[in-house]
Design a protein that fits this description.
- The complex is a heterodimer of chains A (201) and B (128).
- In chain A, strands 1, 2, 3, 4, 5, 6, 7 and 8 form an eight-stranded mixed beta sheet that branches.
- Helix content of chain A is 30%, strand content 27%.
- Chain A is α/β, with parallel strands linked by helices.
- In chain A, a hairpin with a 5-residue loop joins strand 3 and strand 4.
- Chain B has a single domain, classed as Beta-Lactamase.
- Chain B has three helices and six strands; from the N terminus they run βαββαβββα.
- In chain B, a hairpin with a 3-residue loop joins strand 5 and strand 6.
- In chain B, helix 1 runs antiparallel to helix 3.
- Classes of the chains: A alpha/beta (201), B alpha+beta (128).
- At the A-B interface, strand 1, strand 4, strand 5 and helix 2 of A face strand 1, helix 1 and helix 2 of B.
- Strand 1 of chain A pairs parallel with strand 1 of chain B.
- The structure holds guanosine-5'-triphosphate and magnesium ion.
- Magnesium ion binds next to helix 1 of chain A.
Chain lengths: 201, 128
């Protein structure tokens, strides 16, 4: 539910990072915050527990400049991935325009990815949104772990598990090292903006 | 589901909030939607809060409090207010989808503020 302010010629767009607990959603935002420090004038907001798990959400406003004369303000959010926080997860999804689904490439997390995607579909449907229609990017995170001998799911398997029906653009990434974090974000912004474009006359 | 408000509507809402709230001593006021988007924001020129973060947190906070209300069997809590040493913050729902947030100091009483907020909301409802 992007908001278009014709007076200030400004558009506010909400992109939510979704995915299983400990998958790397917060790490994505932290990397973006570090990388674009000069462009982000405010602090990143993080509501978390003592153990660094997201309790409610992280929030990062991100200006991308002008598109067709409109100032575009991207608002990045993460949800808490832990299963027990579904009520707050659903709150954060309210008014979402685009989703980045951060899957965990670790073999032991295979089931968790599937459950989280299913949970996303359910939560979107409470807002009458269709997972197949909302602009979505998949990120297969933590690929750096293969160097440490940790068994990972191949992108083919992840794609088969998560993306057979969605057919969303996907990226192998390491949020920790920063590889493909920006590519994921850029893709998400571009497909989200494309779907909003008809609003920008 | 995107929505747009034109120059005219935004101008009239700003005018209402300026006259009914800022001119009477409120430090900062903003109207947001439940997704955390800012629709209108005004301040008295003396403060520089990070309103985008405030808006995201206010929407989340309001959603959390509403969910708590439902769990204890209330439809909604009628007074949403945080009191500080110098600054206070007050939330008021506008129809189902919007929230008016005001930040004010010791010189404004809560009773007076609530009255003025209610008046402003009445006028804003006509526009939204
Ligand atoms: N090796 C490696 N570790 C990562 C990567 N991304 C995240 N991590 C680590 O995984 C752990 C969890 O990362 P978070 O970003 O907090 O995960 P989250 O998805 O926000 O988790 P919740 O807030 O509980 O939903 C942290 O210790 C990160 O350092 C990655 O790409 N590679
Ligand atoms: Mg997190």
């Amino acid at each position: 539910m992007a908001f278009v302010n014709l007076k200030k010629k400004e558009v506010q767009v909400k992109i939510v990072y979704y995915g299983p607990g400990r998958g790397g959603k917060t790490t994505n935002l932290e990397y973006i915050y570090k990388k674009f420090n000069a462009r982000i004038k405010t602090e990143m907001v993080a509501i978390k527990t003592h153990g660094d798990r997201t309790l409610f959400f992280d929030f990062l406003p991100f200006d991308i400049g002008k598109i067709k004369g409109y100032d575009v303000k991207i608002q990045l959010y993460t949800v808490p991935g832990q299963v027990k926080y579904n009520a707050t997860r659903r709150l954060v999804l309210r008014g979402v325009d685009g989703i980045v689904f951060v899957a965990d490439s670790m073999k032991v997390r295979r089931e968790k990815n599937l459950l989280s995607l299913k949970n996303l579909q359910e939560n979107l449907s409470t807002y009458k949104k269709n997972i197949f229609k909302i602009p979505m990017v998949l990120q297969y995170n933590k690929i750096d772990l293969s160097e440490h001998g940790i068994p990972l799911l191949s992108p083919e398997i992840l794609g088969k598990d998560l993306n057979t029906q969605l057919k969303a653009p996907s990226f192998e990434a390491s949020a920790l090292l920063g590889s493909n974090v920006v590519a994921t974000l850029k893709k998400s912004i571009s497909i989200t903006m494309a779907s909003l474009k008809k609003e920008l006359k | 589901m995107d929505y747009t408000l034109g120059q005219k509507e935004l101008d009239s809402m700003e005018e209402i909030l300026q006259k009914d709230l800022i001119d009477l001593g409120v430090h900062c006021v903003f109207l947001i939607d439940m997704a955390g988007n800012i629709i209108v924001n005004l301040d008295n020129g003396d403060i520089e809060h990070d309103i985008y973060s405030l808006a995201a947190l206010a929407a989340g906070n309001f959603g959390a409090v509403s969910a708590m209300a439902r769990i204890v069997g209330e439809n909604e809590f009628s007074l949403l207010f945080h009191k500080g040493k110098k600054e206070n913050i007050h939330f008021s729902k506008v129809m189902t989808d919007f929230l008016l947030v005001t930040i004010f100091g010791r010189e404004t009483s809560l009773g007076f503020l609530r009255l003025k907020v209610a008046e402003a909301i009445k006028k804003i409802k006509v526009i939204l």
